[in-house]
Design goal:
- The protein has 279 residues and is of the alpha/beta class.
- The protein folds into 2 domains: 149 residues, Rossmann fold; 114 residues, Rossmann fold, CATH 3.40.50.
- Helix content is 45%, strand content 16%.
- It contains 13 helices and 10 strands.
- The strands form 2 sheets. Strands 4-3-1-2-9-10 form a 6-stranded parallel β-sheet, with helices on both faces. Strands 6-5-7-8 form a 4-stranded parallel β-sheet, sandwiched between helices.
- Helix 10 links the parallel strand 7 and strand 8.
- Helix 5 packs across helix 7.
- It is globular, with a radius of gyration of 18 Å.
- Bound molecules: D-glutamic acid (DGL).
């Protein structure tokens, strides 16, 4: 079993790029005293179009990197990684580490809230190709709520638009309209739409403008952060490991200045980033 002896144990937050910052932002609000390390695998983003095996391999490398930095708990703040890698990591790879090492995803906390929100019991999902093809959302939702009909549309252009800071452009308007129309052409009874990719909150204003009247848009950050807070309250032994000095480190597999510049837009504050090599 691999142990680490570092005294600082921040909570690891992982995403393929910048999207997980929308989740980290909410975690900072709910758990202001905790230390976090954010890791964006910007050199290999996007994950959404990659195969199961590749997403699993990349995600595992990042999770183990965060463990080696002292993290006991890592949140996959990425739906694609949660859909394609979480289960295998939990069932296979965590065995190599001590039992205090845990990995959690963003799908379960989101599923738990949508059932309370939908009246029509018709839920829409907007996500990456990987998340949609994995069927993780309908499977998880129907396990708990078999009466809910889930209809999904993949939005492959949205992450590149966001990663390239084009989310305020006219091009973004076009692709927002296109995917929302596609979703509602499949099911016009949808009254709740899950933004099933942590990048998408940056397009939330544009998406809300084109949604049919009365349809609710669910961004995950707040729910994932609340669920983490409750998890730490239930698992006091794990909470005791988490260091609490209100420190946040930002790591990226790409250029640190580029990351810092884009992350500052996501977070609305200036940050410093470090470039890392995974191996
Ligand atoms: N932010 C990620 C998600 O929630 C993935 C984006 C990507 O790398 O394609 O799915």
């Amino acid at each position: 079993m691999v142990e680490n002896h570092l005294s600082s144990a921040p909570i690891g937050v992982f995403d393929s790029g910048y999207g997980g910052l929308t989740i980290l932002n909410e975690m900072k609000k709910k758990l202001p005293e905790y230390d976090f390390i954010y890791l964006g695998d910007n050199a290999r983003t996007p994950y959404g179009t990659r195969s199961f095996d590749v997403v699993y391999e990349y995600t595992l490398q990042c999770v183990e990197y965060l463990f080696r930095q002292g993290c006991r708990l890592v949140i996959l703040a990425c739906n694609t990684a949660s859909a394609k890698a979480l289960r295998s990591i939990q069932q296979i790879d965590l065995k190599k580490w001590t039992p205090e090492h845990r990995v959690l995803g963003v799908i379960r906390p989101t599923v738990e809230v949508v059932a309370d929100l939908t009246q029509s019991r018709h839920v829409g999902l907007l996500g990456t190709i990987g998340t949609v093809q994995s069927q993780s959302y309908p499977l998880e939702i129907n396990k708990l709520y078999p009466d809910i009909v889930v209809t999904a549309t993949a939005c492959p252009m949205w992450v590149p638009l966001i990663e390239n800071q084009e989310y305020n452009s006219l091009g973004a308007d076009y692709f927002v309209q296109k995917y929302v129309d596609e979703l509602f052409s499949k099911d016009d009874k949808i009254d709740t739409v899950i933004l099933g990719c942590t990048h998408y909150p940056l397009l939330a204003d544009k998406i809300s403008k084109v949604l049919p009247k009365g349809v609710m848009l669910v961004s995950q950050g707040e729910y994932v952060a609340e669920s983490l807070k409750k998890y730490l309250m239930r698992h006091t032994e794990l909470d005791a490991y988490c260091s609490k000095n209100a420190k946040i480190r930002y790591l990226t597999t790409e250029n640190e200045e580029r990351f810092a510049q884009s992350a500052s837009i996501f977070l609305q504050e200036k940050v410093r980033a470090e470039r890392i090599l995974l191996k």
